[in-house]
Amino acid sequence: MKSMGLILILAIGFYLYKTGNLQRMINNLHENKNYQTNEAKRILDIRLAKGEITEEEEYNKLKSIL
User: Fold this and answer.
1) How far apart are CA 15 and CA 60, in angstroms?
2) Is 63:44 a contact under the CB 8 Å cutoff?
3) What is the mean pLDDT of the chain?
4) 52-58 contact pairs (CB < 8 A, 24+)
5) What CA–CA distances, in Å, run from 26 to 34, 37, 40, 47?
6) What angle, 0 to 180 degrees and rounded to 10, lies between the N-to-C axes of helices 2-19 and 21-50?
7) The whole model's pTM is what?
8) What is the pLDDT of residue 18?
9) Cα 7 to Cα 12: distance, rounded to the nearest angstrom
């Protein structure tokens, strides 16, 4: 029973690979991650401008984590 599930997963993966959908799905995952990182950096910039983050060192530390 486990081998049938594995064969099914491999068949679906092979189909997605052949149709190019697999690469599109992977690219979408990377785009979402980049968007989230850029959004977090934008929020940091806004917080620094508002004065919510007072020290430049703290700001740089947070930005380097992202």
Assistant:
1) 45
2) yes
3) 81
4) none
5) 13, 17, 22, 32
6) 80
7) 0.44
8) 87
9) 9
Least confident window among 9-18, 31-40, 47-56: 31-40
Locate 43 and state its tokens: 């929020």
**Which two tokens mark 3?**
């081998």
Q: Among candidates 36, 34, 56, 35, which has minimal Cα distance to 45?
A: 56
Which amino acid type is present at position 46?
A: I
Report the half-sphere exposure of 61 (CA within 13 A, side-chain side): 6
- Per-residue pLDDT, 66: 65
CB 41 within 8 A of CB 66: yes
